[in-house]
Design goal:
With 436 residues, the protein is of the alpha/beta class. 30% of the residues lie in helices and 26% in strands. It is built from 13 helices and 25 strands. It binds shikimate-3-phosphate. Shikimate-3-phosphate binds at residues 23, 96, 171-173, 176, 197-198, 318-319, 342.
Length: 436
């Protein structure tokens, strides 16, 4: 089992470029595969999650050149050109792959089984099974919560029904699964959510010529269209940049420039949260590259203070909870995070995982069913901590090590860190490269 040993030390300085956005990389492969013609993707994330999505499409007969690298050429087979895979589709740790593929594959004339690793097999799929079943799809998991593996049975092509789905949760995975099934359905399919979740699917579909109508919190597609092949530049993942943003904000003397980061407004909650906490963040050269806005982000050290986080602000930083916990623990005063119950069913139970690991380094926390309060400003004590098999917990605890006092340990030891490879290959080396 691999681990990271990190000692506290000098400021973070220089320039970095983080790997490609995970959400956008998944969608580039999925939609490129369903397009008519050849799509080129650059800046693709070579993490295991997005590579597993690419492998799944290769297994369904899509020719993808450049597998394992950042530049892919995808020979799209059209909406009706996928072939039945030989064997199950193993999606590893990736919830996004499983939920979006459940939608996309539920209107096919062939059946298949979607499976994953021990962590993914503990994540509920009922949230997508329910609306897909209402569309006439035959998707089943285990038990009431439809746990993986998910079995998808064939349907007669073009027979799914368009529905108007009122989603009880704001979830891009649910929204995207239903919209992708909607491409194969009769008439219109719409999804209404309680708050606007990330909108990469909508932006990319539009970029490929699909008529996507947005009316407030409702998004609608009409079945029977076609997807035009396109070239995609995948921007750097703001969720990966977030570890470096917080690292620079809490390490005295830091001045770090993170180039080419996606700044889609449904994802920039981390910038707003850190600014509310008094971080010094400058957005440089904002520009639009294809369907997504991009910019360079400069972060300089500044003393942080505690704040309250909930509602839409939380949703726009949903994957950043573990690293926001570290910012909060380094800030003066209390930070309270609410409306975060979804975190109980992420790659780990992130509320429980962060509460237990913060306690190990001497940070006083209180856990709520839907969040946590963190008493900041106390020195962190280096300790042996655990990732809970969760990439974002592993990277967050590594960042805490940058400012931890030694105590009995010779630096912070973060155990079980292979999981970092799902979203951020090269994380540890990049961190070392910008340390004084
Ligand atoms: C994602 C949506 C979010 C996010 C996940 C990626 C996506 O999940 O947490 O990491 O790419 O659609 P939910 O839709 O379950 O909130």
């Amino acid at each position: 089992m691999s681990s990271i040993n990190i000692k506290s030390g000098g400021p973070l300085k220089g320039e970095i470029r983080v790997p490609g956005d995970k959400s956008i990389s998944h969608r580039a492969v999925m939609l490129g595969s369903l397009a008519d013609g050849v799509s080129r993707v650059s800046g693709f994330l070579t993490g295991e999650d997005s590579v597993n999505t690419a492998r799944a499409f290769a297994k369904m007969g899509v020719e993808i050149d450049g597998m394992g690298g950042t530049e892919l050429t995808i020979k799209g087979v059209g909406l009706d050109g996928l072939k039945a895979p030989a064997g199950d589709l193993d999606l590893g740790n990736s919830g996004t792959s499983m939920r979006l593929l459940a939608g996309l594959l539920s209107g096919q004339g062939f059946g298949c089984t979607l499976t994953g690793d021990e962590y993914l097999c503990k994540r509920p799929m009922a949230r997508v099974v329910k609306p897909l079943t209402a569309m006439g799809a035959k998707v089943t998991g285990n038990g009431e919560r439809s746990m993986p593996p998910l079995k998808i049975e064939p349907v007669i092509k073009g027979t799914l029904n368009g529905i108007s789905y009122q989603s009880p949760i704001a979830s891009a995975q649910v929204k995207s699964a239903v919209l992708l099934a909607g491409l194969y359905a009769k008439g219109r399919t719409s999804v209404t959510e309680p708050m606007k979740s990330r909108d990469h699917t909508e932006r990319m579909l539009r970029h490929m010529g699909v008529d996507v109508v947005e009316d407030g919190l409702t998004v609608t597609v009409t079945g029977g269209g076609r997807l035009k092949a396109s070239d995609f530049m995948v921007p750097g993942d703001i969720s990966s940049a977030a570890f470096f943003m917080v690292a620079a904000a809490i390490t005295p003397g830091s001045d770090l420039l993170i180039r080419d980061v996606g700044i889609n407004p449904t994802r920039t909650g981390i910038i707003d949260i850190l600014r509310l906490m008094n971080a010094a963040i400058t957005i440089e050269e904002p520009r639009t590259d294809g369907p997504e806005p991009v910019a360079d982000i400069r972060v300089e050290y500044s003393g942080l203070r505690g704040i309250e986080i909930g509602g839409e602000l939380f949703l726009r930083a949903i994957d950043e909870f573990p690293i926001v916990c570290i910012a909060a623990a380094a800030a003066e005063g209390e930070t309270v995070i609410r409306d975060a119950a979804e975190l109980r069913v992420k790659e780990s139970d992130r509320i429980a995982a962060m509460a237990s690991e913060l306690a190990k380094i001497g940070v006083p926390v209180k856990e709520f069913p839907d969040g946590m309060s963190i008493e900041g400003g106390m020195a962190f004590r280096a300790a042996r901590v655990d990732s809970h098999g969760d990439h974002r917990v592993a990277m967050s605890m590594t960042v805490a090590g940058l400012v931890a006092e030694d105590g009995d340990e010779d630096g912070m030891v973060v155990e079980d860190t292979e999981c970092i490879g799902t979203s951020f290959p090269g994380f540890e080396g990049m961190l070392e490269s910008v340390r004084g």
